[in-house]
Task: inverse folding
């Protein structure tokens, strides 16, 4: 009889820890990519906040995989790399995860329009928070146009990001079921 | 609910509160400009910049492709434009030669000192400003290449900004369009001094001009050299709009298309860049009425 050791056993895919870690890593990479988008002149000074779309989607659909520290780490990476206001986005992202904990049940029962409206409020809140803190700390008001452009592009890209993330999630689920 | 569960929930709440407090206080600590925080940030940037570069590769690839297509499409128009520009440049060159000769004579009369000796170091811009709250870029050169805090960053068109943080192999450049960038300048034709201030947007505003100054649209704005950090005579931009007391300047460099920049190393010997005493280095207005400042010369007539 051929010996069947641990190498022939099925891989353990039910552990939550690697997925939580992956979400943080993917979020940070997305934040880097988001900064890279500024190399396109059209997004100069105002890139779409892709990491927020991702964080919002994960917090909405995978509550067990997202902790406050996830929002903090993604936000702080973005702050350290591209912002002058260290901790600004991190604080805002913590607030997003916290808010999603409260609003999740209601949003999951609603349709996509409700989710989008919620995202509009979240994005406006995140940017407004950064804007107010930045203005208060620097005693100067930055140009409004790039801020509005950034919010606008993020809101427009949200449905696309939502569909892509849902599709990827479905593909992952299929792989997990078949394995 | 069991007592252990309650304790766990309490611990979690405390941890969350601490995280929020820590995150919020980071914003204020960051503004204190602490050396430790700055070093930690540049350490992290040194570590992550290659990853950012890698992640940005597809974006850069698409941008190069789009530029290539655009170049091919506009080749004919570009050729015509370049021929006209070439003719114009030839005329300017002749004029520059005449002016250079005149300048040399004037310098010998005034006993002016030769320009600062600064060595240009070419560096690639790894990032571009992505947020509306900071206009900084990471460049792929650092302490190992002799870059220091305060080094000016330029392109062939003019001033980009100055180095504010230096890591081992990467440096962070504060662009002139950042809200924290205030550059001492002079108006090229009238030599009135002022300060350009960024607002995290496309344009700069020109402030602290004397009341008598009358900037004209299209007038070149140059660095004055006050403070000694930036060399004198580097183009910052051109006056774009004059409305009452508000003067808008369009940067000389197209900051949206930065790929390579030159960092001017050296020339700041004897200046404590971490602790600039403004009254020692920056004299924005002439002490006696009726006199005007020349590039890089303070009110006492000393070169800065």
Result:
């Amino acid at each position: 009889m051929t010996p069947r050791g641990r190498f022939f056993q099925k891989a353990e895919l039910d552990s939550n820890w690697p997925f939580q870690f992956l979400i943080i890593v993917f979020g940070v990479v997305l934040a880097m990519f988001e900064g890279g988008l500024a190399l396109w002149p059209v997004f100069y000074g105002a890139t779409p906040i892709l990491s927020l779309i991702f964080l919002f989607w994960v917090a909405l659909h995978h509550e067990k995989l997202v902790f406050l520290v996830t929002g903090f780490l993604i936000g702080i990476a973005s702050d350290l790399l591209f912002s002058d206001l260290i901790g600004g986005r991190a604080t805002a992202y913590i607030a997003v995860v916290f808010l999603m904990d409260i609003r999740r049940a209601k949003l999951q029962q609603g349709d996509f329009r409700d989710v989008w409206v919620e995202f509009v409020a979240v994005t406006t809140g995140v940017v407004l928070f950064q804007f107010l803190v930045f203005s208060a700390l620097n005693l100067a008001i930055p140009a409004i146009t790039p801020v509005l452009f950034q919010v606008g592009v993020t809101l427009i890209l949200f449905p696309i990001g939502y569909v892509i993330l849902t599709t990827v999630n479905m593909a992952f689920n299929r792989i997990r079921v078949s394995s | 609910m069991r007592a252990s569960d309650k304790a766990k929930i309490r611990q979690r709440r405390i941890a969350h509160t601490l995280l929020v407090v820590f995150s919020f206080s980071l914003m204020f600590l960051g503004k204190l400009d602490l050396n430790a925080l700055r070093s930690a940030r540049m350490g992290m940037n040194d570590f992550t910049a290659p990853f950012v570069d890698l992640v940005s590769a597809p974006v850069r690839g698409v941008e190069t492709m789009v530029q290539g297509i655009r170049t091919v499409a506009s080749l004919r128009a570009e050729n015509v434009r370049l021929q006209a520009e070439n003719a114009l440049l030839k005329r300017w060159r002749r004029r520059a030669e005449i002016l250079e000769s005149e300048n040399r004579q004037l310098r010998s009369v005034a006993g002016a000192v030769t320009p600062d000796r600064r060595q240009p170091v070419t560096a690639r811009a790894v990032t571009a400003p992505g947020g509306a709250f900071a206009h900084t870029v990471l460049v792929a050169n650092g302490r190992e290449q002799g870059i220091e805090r305060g080094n000016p960053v330029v392109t062939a068109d003019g001033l980009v900004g100055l180095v504010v943080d230096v890591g081992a192999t990467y440096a962070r450049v504060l662009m002139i369009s950042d809200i924290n960038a205030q550059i001492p300048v002079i108006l090229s034709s009238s030599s009135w001094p002022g300060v350009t201030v960024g607002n995290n947007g496309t344009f700069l505003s020109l402030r602290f001009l004397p009341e008598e100054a009358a900037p004209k649209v299209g007038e070149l704005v140059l660095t004055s050299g006050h403070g000694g950090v930036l060399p004198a005579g580097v183009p910052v931009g051109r006056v774009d709009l004059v409305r009452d007391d508000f003067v808008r300047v369009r940067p000389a460099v197209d900051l949206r298309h930065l790929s390579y920049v030159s960092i001017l190393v050296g020339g700041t010997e004897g200046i404590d860049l971490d602790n600039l005493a403004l009254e020692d280095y920056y004299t924005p207005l002439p002490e006696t009425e009726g006199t005007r400042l020349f590039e890089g010369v303070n009110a006492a007539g000393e070169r800065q």
Summary: Residues 111-115, 277-301 of chain B have pLDDT under 50 and may be disordered. DSSP finds four helices and twelve strands in chain B. Chain B touches chain A through 47 residues (CB under 8 Å).
